[in-house]
Amino acid sequence: MNMSSTTGPIVLAEDVQKSFGANRILKGVDLTVAAGEVVVLMGPSGSGKSTFLRCLNRLTDPDGGRIVVAGSVMTDPATNLPKARRRIGFVSQHFHLYPHMTVLANVMEGPRTVLRVPRQVARERGRDLLARVGLSDKEAAMPWQLSGGQQQRVAIARALAMEPTVMLFDEPTSALDPELTGEVLDTMQQLALDGLTMLIVSHEIHFASRVADRLAMFDAGCVIEEGPPERLLRSASQERTGRFLARLMSWESDLAATSR
Asked: Sheet of 166-170: strands edge to edge?
């Protein structure tokens, strides 16, 4: 597992709340993440995981609470959000690649236009990142020529090109066929081994048990339990946590059996 920072959390969320109309999605979420830590957010659909993740980088505005990411107080009206977001990479289930650009150009675009990185530097960084995600041979390809798993790995490389301090992943494999999921999860596992701080919304329990330092279990807009995956899988203190994780383990085992 990864080393924790001695200088305080890289992500701090206190009493984060969010409602959409009369529907209270987040009911006071508290969570801290140390530098280099990997935290996987799990829980039933509609429990607030993705909303919380999007509140961290203010793609969704929380109604209350305090959020600090990589030293920026994201909930302070005086914070320069575009500048603060440069330190927060975000990968969702939708790839959002530029269809008219090559793979390499997609990865270069952010550093060139936002960070004003010289073209040759951006090109070299882009090639290094494509190698990191196993796509060195695809730099001249167009997005439509790639599989879904390859497109998602390009999206990861594009996010890494901005040299983020924290990476947020919102169900990055949910739009992929099962046989393509593994290549994306393998890439994410390597990022964890490299020490990148990551928060990941996922239902991939076997992946989480290998990679996560902690699971944070969401239910009805609250974090009801958190801890190392091996402990929660063995002896969760909340009955809801145990039931949910047992269902995920059973589902993944059945899926593996049918695919053999």
From this structure: 88-91, 166-170, 197-201, 38-42, 214-219, 222-227
- Which percentage of the chain shows pLDDT scores above 90? 77
- Per-residue HEC secondary structure of 150-196 comes to HHHHHHHHHHHCCCCCEEEEECCCCCCCHHHHHHHHHHHHHHHHCCC
Do the bridges between strand 64-69 and strand 11-20 make them parallel or antiparallel, or are there none, so unpaired? antiparallel
- DSSP reduced 3-state for 110: helix
Position 176 scores a pLDDT of: 85
Q: Which residue has the tokens 């270069």?
A: 108
Instruction: Indicate the DSSP class of residue 94.
Output: S
The whole-angstrom separation of Cα 112 and Cα 56 is: 25
**Closest among 183, 180, 184 to 170, alpha carbons compared:** 184
Q: Beta strand pairing status for 11-20 and 38-42?
A: unpaired
Q: What is the mean pLDDT of the chain?
A: 91
Q: Which of 54-63, 138-147, 169-178 has the lowest mean pLDDT?
A: 169-178
Q: Which residues contact 164 (CB under 8 A, 6 or more apart)?
A: 86, 87, 88, 89
C-alpha 37/C-alpha 39 separation (Å) is: 6
Q: Are 75 and 69 in contact (CB under 8 A)?
A: no
Higher pLDDT, 1 or 64: 64
What are the chain's domains?
A: 1-87+168-260 (3.40.50.300), 97-163 (no CATH)
